[in-house]
Amino acid sequence: MRVGRLRIEYPGGVKRFGDFLVNSPAALLLGGTTVVLLVLFLIPGLHPIAWIIGLLAVVVLAGVLVLWFLEWRRTQDRIDQLNARLAKAHAAIGGVSLSPVAEDEPSADTVRAERIRELFPTGSGLVQELRVESGFSPLPTALVAPLREFLDEFSHASFENPASHFAFMDLYRAGTALTEWLDSQTQDTAGKLEMAPGDVREGGWRGFAEAREAGQRRIDAFLSTRQAFERTALENDVLG
């Protein structure tokens, strides 16, 4: 014969009162007092005053119930206050909102490469002028401004992509060499840079030819490194 296990379900109020009996200091007082009264009641010879013991038990029980009720009220008031403060804080915050995240933000390498392409466009400006005129016709001073800006702006720059960084360094060195040549071998005349002719040059026309040949090498180096940098950036997905 199998005997099933008896399961007793307690109402919510009874459960809360049971929690009180376990955790409340008042319940501890109730339990201790009840045990003392029961011991006194069971001692032989005290039965004539059992009604006094019973009266004391009733008074103690009533006092403990009052203490429990007051404690329960204070707890409920505290809970209500906390709920009200929480609702007020939530209303002030207005809920949590997510900021949109920009998609496909360009990398630092891409930003730098785009800036270099902006300073030296292939179809206009300094690059086009050097390709067409080879730098020996009067060069507008304004076209050299992006080159000087590039050298100042990228003096401490670097690229995370190794191949792009090496190509950038070649371009920077070529730009530096070209600028040095322009500063030493040309003069600003009415907003244009021109080479001093051989008849006013210390080395004469031979010195002019040597300076022009050196300038041609630096111009070619600048144009080739400019092209190589963009090609390398495109091959490594730095530029789109």
Summarize this structure as a short list of keywords or feature phrases.
240 residues; mainly alpha; 2 domains; 3-stranded antiparallel β-sheet; 3 strands; rod-shaped; disordered N terminus
Provide an overview of this structure.
Keywords: Membrane, Transmembrane, Transmembrane helix. This is DUF2207 domain-containing protein. The protein is mainly alpha-helical and 240 residues long. It folds into 2 domains: 12-85; 108-235. It is built from 8 helices and 3 strands; from the N terminus they run αααααβααββα. The protein has helices at 12-23, 25-42, 50-93, 108-119, 125-133, 141-153, 162-185, 204-235, and strands at residues 139-140, 186-189, 192-195. A 3-stranded antiparallel sheet has the order 1-3-2. Strand 2 and strand 3 (192-195) form a beta hairpin. The longest helix is centred in the first third of the chain and has 44 residues, at 50-93. The protein is rod-shaped, with a radius of gyration of 47 Å. The two termini are 83 Å apart. Residues 1-15 have low confidence and may be disordered.
The largest pleated sheet is described as: 3 strands, antiparallel
What's the SSE pattern? HHHHHEHHEEH
Shape: rod-shaped
Number of domains: 2
Query: What is the radius of gyration?
Result: 47 Å
Strand content: under 5%
Number of helices: 8
Q: Tell me the structural class.
A: mainly alpha
* Helix content estimate: 55-70%
- Report how far the terminal alpha carbons are from each other: 83 Å
Q: Which spans have pLDDT < 50 for at least 5 consecutive residues?
A: 1-15
In order across it, which strands form the biggest sheet? 1-3-2
Please state the average pLDDT score: 78
The total count of strands amounts to: 3
Organism: Brevibacterium pityocampae
Keywords: Membrane, Transmembrane, Transmembrane helix
Protein name: DUF2207 domain-containing protein
Transmembrane segments: 20-43, 49-70
